[in-house]
């Protein structure tokens, strides 16, 4: 996107489609703050996700109270298997996530989008959708992704051009294009139209064809275009998963259009989806 508020600066629109799910219960933030919403949010700039027209950024993890504990690996494993498990068996914990990060994931989450940045200051990352099978976490394909121009932060403020590290629920979707069949509430609106160019001179048009709102500093159960910022405008907001425009974002995470469509079709509110996002070293904590 462009600007430091990754979602367009427009008045809130009425959300079309199905009724929205109410916000979840208390959330533990990385800063220790509790909120009655599954999010903590930072308002980003208002232009796109690169440098022209934008949306917003988010910051504090929506943490669950239940903690997962990594399994102890067996002393000796069969060759060619991870920790001695059969190659087809899903791991008990999501790879690459340390105990603190796993503790932020709500106990009832059965879909987890893990966005892993190359390093703290990098704007390239990758995304994987995991689903809990009942006995372990099954990984989907690895998708290339981009994040904010200056990388990642665990103390996000509007305009810092960094994506917030944390765990956030995924409650609402929308876009300029018609609903492809999403199970999340989907707001089809012309408000998602964007123009201008990003940080590397790339066109931003089409960036918001498909959008999933990341519940950082926003009210779940509303359109991604809603400008309500529970933590205040200075903490940013409008942090979305959206279509990649071939350049870094203001604070959002972007995926190629087909991968965004695939994600929209896969996310199921009954499985309490969340996104876990940050640089690799932070997520290992």
Question: Could you explain the architecture of this structure?
Answer:
With 285 residues, the chain is mostly beta strands. It has three helices and 15 strands. The protein has helices at residues 99-104, 257-266, 280-283; strands at residues 26-28, 34-36, 41-42, 57-58, 111-117, 124-132, 137-146, 152-153, 163-164, 166-175, 186-188, 211-214, 240-243, 253-255, 274-279. The strands form four sheets. An eight-stranded mixed beta barrel has the order 5-6-7-14-13-12-10-15. Strand 5 (111-117) and strand 6 (124-132) form a beta hairpin. The model is unreliable at 1-5 and 7-86 (pLDDT under 50).
Give average pLDDT, whole number: 78
Helix content: under 10%
| Annotation field: number of helices | 3
Oligomer: single chain
| Overall 3D form | globular
Structural class: mainly beta
Sheet having the most strands: 8 strands, mixed, barrel
Order of helices and strands: EEEEHEEEEEEEEEEHEH
Strand order, main sheet: write it out. Answer: 5-6-7-14-13-12-10-15
Could you name the key traits of this structure?
285 residues, mainly beta, 8-stranded mixed barrel, two-stranded antiparallel sheet, 3 helices, 15 strands, globular
Note the topology.
Elements: E1 26-28, E2 34-36, E3 41-42, E4 57-58, H1 99-104, E5 111-117, E6 124-132, E7 137-146, E8 152-153, E9 163-164, E10 166-175, E11 186-188, E12 211-214, E13 240-243, E14 253-255, H2 257-266, E15 274-279, H3 280-283
Parallel strand pairs: 5-15, 8-9, 10-11, 13-14
Antiparallel strand pairs: 1-2, 3-4, 5-6, 6-7, 7-14, 10-12, 10-15, 12-13
